[in-house]
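Handoff note, outgoing to incoming analyst
You'll be picking up this chain. Sequence as last confirmed:
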Amino acid sequence: MKSNSTVLSIDIGTSTVKCGVIDSQGTLRSGYRAAADESSTADPASAWETQLLEALSHIASEMGGVEAVSVCGNGPTMIPVDADGSPCGATVAWNHPEAQPVEGTRSLFLPAASAALKTASRDVRLLSGCPEYLTGRITGEWFTFLPSDDFTPYIWEREEAEAYGIPFELFPPMKKIGEPAGQVSKEFSFRSGIPQGIPVFAGGPDYLLALLGTAVTVPGRICDRAGTSEALNLCIEKTESSTAAEHALRVLPHCIKGLCSAASLLPVSGMHFLSFLRSAQKAGESAKQISRDMLQIYWLDDAYEQAIMQALRSFASPRLSEEQVFSFLAGGDWTAAGRVFSEAAAYSIRRGFEKFARAGLNTDVLRVSGGQSFNDQWNQLKADVLSIPLEVPMIADAELLGCAAVSLTALGQFPSFQEASEKLYAPDRIIEPDARRSDMFSERFFRLFPADSR
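Most recent structure output, in case you need it:
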């Protein structure tokens, strides 16, 4: 074993496929984010492979020394796969309207699996999750990734599969995170440049890998996974799970024994923020200028607060249309509209944050990751509205570092995922809240949302 191994990490996001070569010192040797082609009509699962190959072409110079691969991805997303290992029906994402649960069941994946199965155009060999699909394409072997034994009911069990009318033999066998899930095939090596025959280790759901990638592996630490979708994930003791659930937090097992993740979910925050900026750019405005100037606006009149509430109501839509953007564009002022929209989004995040406080689950710094974390004006607004420092990691795409922690532990570089996370994670900068703005935002927040008062 080399003293400084390098591994390839892959993360399938809602709108991008990211990959990075990371070493056992926690250094990102090379990385790339390949965005989906919005004009393409290809099914998402087919597009992931195209995006991955594009991303790998940009980091080809680092590929020769890679010793292992791990893949994580958005979940619970399901794909029907045929005998050739190709999609034979629609990819049903975690937020698909037809992915509806059967009453009395706990599985987060079976609703999507049921909806996906109904779209199959030919014989289905198996039903695959998101990171498992791309791993299968890389290796030719098919598994289901299991974060921990406690997680099994949230994936699938035979009785619940029967409740959905799904033959249980369509589900691949389970592999725990970090277990061998095959090797890079000759065919995929030729197409991608990943060394043939190196091990591929089981990854898992992106949120869990982000917890590893931000070292949210100790009770009381919290991360804001801020990409196309967003979630606040707090690490808690398993004994605190009932209290967290009572306060409308989604509680799931951690991949580290004895711990859980308590989450407040914000499904469309990043998607709507991006929609707003695209509308601004289409109108000839500068997204950077809007972000830079919007923090300087301080007014407090009733019309402004009404605009904030109007923007919040628009968040109920799965996607933000140009018509909705223009509906709260007062007087054609894009900077003002950016402030209205961003402040509304930040309040929706604070509403989630207040759930932790009411449950007695407190923290003193928020580690932020994902695409939104690259925008320091947006980070500053969040810090001000939440009245808490934001810590931006050296590797902002935390899922990639989490995959590296998995691979490097599996290679023997670290004795456990927890120790790998502690050693690999490093902060880049701290964004402190501005006291004057924080007081103003807190006053306005509790005026607009009195029910969230502790």
